[in-house]
């Protein structure tokens, strides 16, 4: 169930996806609505945790050249919550999710290089109580990294 009110919400969010610093005045002009309408909807997006404004940085441009996905199997299963909480402490993790299938967790990490990644695995992740085994898949080259296509959020009838 969508928490968006209408098509105008989607249009405002699409503009903000392209430029999170665009002014409410510019959005209002583009959509032919009052500035107060844009401001109120923006504040609603923020308060409902629909929108967070941040700068997306190209990892390679700032020296993070080892980008990988790590699948983690936790045993016994009652350790999953504890492992999740410990992994949340790692600055290298940019994404973490519980998954179905053979593994319990999947994390994406960004490290300076393979030495940094290896050290993080050996010194921290593999030593966590409950981590049974892991599989690492390196991203050799990222071909597409983009924001959510908000048209997917539209109601289909």
Descriptive labels:
Arc Repressor Mutant, subunit A; elongated; 2 domains; alpha+beta; Alpha-Beta Plaits; 157 residues; AsnC-type_HTH_dom
Description:
The chain is an alpha+beta fold. The chain has 2 domains: 7-55, Winged helix-like DNA-binding domain superfamily/Winged helix DNA-binding domain (Arc Repressor Mutant, subunit A), CATH 1.10.10.10; 59-138, Lrp/AsnC effector binding domain/regulation of amino acid metabolism (RAM) domain (Alpha-Beta Plaits), CATH 3.30.70.920. The protein has 5 helices and 4 strands; from the N terminus they run αααβαββαβ. It has helices at residues 7-18, 24-31, 35-47, 80-87, 114-123; strands at residues 66-74, 93-98, 105-111, 131-138. A 4-stranded antiparallel β-sheet has the order 2-3-1-4. α2 crosses α3.
CATH class of the largest domain: Alpha Beta
In quaternary terms, these chains amount to single chain
Gross morphology = elongated
Proportion of residues in extended strands: 15-25%
Q: Average pLDDT value? A: 92
How would you sum up the major sheet?
Answer: 4 strands, antiparallel
Helix content bin: 25-40%
Domain HTH asnC-type: 6-65
Protein name: Lrp/AsnC family transcriptional regulator
Keywords: DNA-binding, Transcription, Transcription regulation
Organism: Namhaeicola litoreus
């Amino acid at each position: 169930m969508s928490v968006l009110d209408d098509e105008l919400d989607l249009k405002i969010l699409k503009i903000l996806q392209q430029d999170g610093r665009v002014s409410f005045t510019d959005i209002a002009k583009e959509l032919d609505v009052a500035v107060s309408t844009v401001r109120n909807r923006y504040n609603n997006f923020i308060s409902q945790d629909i929108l967070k404004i941040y700068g997306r940085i190209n990892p390679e441009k700032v020296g993070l050249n080892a980008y990988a996905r790590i699948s983690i199997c936790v045993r016994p299963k009652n350790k999953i919550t504890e492992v999740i909480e410990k992994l949340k402490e790692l600055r290298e993790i940019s994404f973490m999710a519980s998954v179905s299938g053979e593994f319990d967790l999947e994390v994406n990490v960004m490290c300076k290089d393979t030495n940094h990644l290896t050290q993080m695995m050996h010194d921290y992740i593999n030593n966590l109580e409950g981590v049974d085994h892991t599989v690492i898949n390196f991203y050799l080259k990222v071909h597409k990294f983009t924001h959510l296509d908000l048209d997917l959020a539209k109601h289909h009838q």
